[in-house]
């Protein structure tokens, strides 16, 4: 599994129930899944060499989060590495604005959202909504600050 955080830790029980071994690629020995993993490949989530080491003892690679580099993973896929979900399935979900647009196109419910580009530059410092909002990174993180309605 690429990622060793809380979701990887929570998935461990299902992995064990299936008779599989949990192997994780994670940047820190302090990450939650490290304590219960059968093997840890220590390195950044987007590091191709670390992911390659993870694949050496894995039949299928899955993801704990969406902070991956698809171009690098496509190299591994071309070499026969199996990803579940597939990289093609993951592609429209990595960028949160694209993700929400894609999910709406599929008819799935999504929260209201705007991108920074949707707000005129001159209005960005004073822009307000009646329903409050959260700033969120579109890619590679969830650093958010909740704002109260004004």
Overall 3D form: elongated
Strand content: 5-15%
Q: DSSP helix count? A: 5
Cα Rg = 18 Å
Which architecture of the largest domain does the CATH hierarchy give at level 2? Answer: 3-Layer(aba) Sandwich
Span of the ends, CA to CA: 42 Å
Query: Spans with pLDDT under 50 lasting ≥5 residues?
Result: none
Q: Major sheet: order of its strands?
A: 1-2
User: How many β-strand stretches?
Assistant: 4
**Could you please say which CATH topology of the largest domain applies here?**
Rossmann fold
Helix and strand sequence? HEEHHHHEE
Helix content: 25-40%
Main beta sheet: 2 strands, parallel
Which CATH class of the largest domain applies here? Alpha Beta
Total domain count: 2
Overall pLDDT score: 85
How would you sum up this structure, described in words?
With 150 residues, the protein is an alpha+beta fold. The chain has two domains: 6-93, Rossmann fold, CATH 3.40.50.20; 96-145, no CATH class. The protein has five helices and four strands. The chain has helices at 6-17, 48-55, 70-78, 87-90, 96-105; strands at residues 23-26, 39-42, 133-135, 145-147. The strands form two sheets. A two-stranded parallel ribbon has the order 1-2. Strands 3-4 form a two-stranded antiparallel sheet. The chain is elongated, with a radius of gyration of 18 Å. The chain starts with 5 loop residues before the first helix and ends with a strand. The mean pLDDT is 85.
Comma- or semicolon-separated keywords:
single chain, 150 residues, Rossmann fold, 2 domains, two-stranded parallel sheet, two-stranded antiparallel sheet, 29% helix, 9% strand
């Amino acid at each position: 599994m690429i990622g060793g955080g809380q979701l990887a830790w929570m998935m461990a029980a299902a992995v064990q129930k299936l008779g599989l071994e949990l192997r994780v690629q994670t940047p820190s020995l302090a990450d939650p899944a490290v304590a219960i993993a059968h093997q840890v490949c220590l390195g950044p989530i987007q590091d191709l060499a670390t992911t390659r080491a993870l694949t050496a003892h894995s039949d299928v690679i899955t993801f704990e989060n969406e902070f991956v580099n698809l171009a690098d993973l496509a190299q591994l896929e071309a070499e026969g590495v199996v990803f579940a979900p597939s990289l093609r399935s993951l592609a429209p979900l990595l960028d949160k604005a694209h993700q929400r647009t894609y999910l709406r196109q599929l008819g799935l419910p999504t929260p209201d959202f705007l991108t920074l580009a949707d707000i005129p530059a001159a209005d960005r410092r004073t822009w307000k909504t009646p329903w409050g909002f959260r700033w969120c990174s579109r890619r590679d993180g969830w650093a958010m600050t909740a704002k109260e309605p004004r």
